[in-house]
Amino acid sequence: MDAKADEPRKCPGIDCANDSEHKALHKSTRNPIRKFLPPSIVSEPDPETGLYNPFPTFPFTGSLRPVYPLSERRKLPDSVVKPVWHTDGQPKYSFTGRNKITILDKKGQDGMRKVCKLAREVLDIAARELRPGVTTDHIDEVVHNACIERN
Fold this sequence. Notes:
The protein is an all-alpha fold. The protein contains four helices and no strands. The longest helix is centred in the last third of the chain and has 24 residues, at 106-129.
């Protein structure tokens, strides 16, 4: 028989020694209440940098970790028309459904062409910023500024 077959199986994605703590560790993740209530463990900011990981109990597989806080919330000029959900994040219109196709008139088609052209310009600007080491926060800032320039 193979020596590897005699070794206890390791848990994928989590470091545990399959000992007495093993069952308690895994039972805590299967608790159905955890779906509704946030975990009690909250990462404290690092005193030296002020950064923190908002997902301290997530079993990451690699070395990459999220770093918060990101930049401050970006401001919109008053000239930009804000959507109905800008205050609380809740849309206040009914969903028309996937099977409803809106037929645009000439004015609507021209507006759609203009919006698509502006969106393509912003996507091209964002694509020029992509390279290894660039944060998504920086790309978000570039896209935000490009959208503001186009009102």
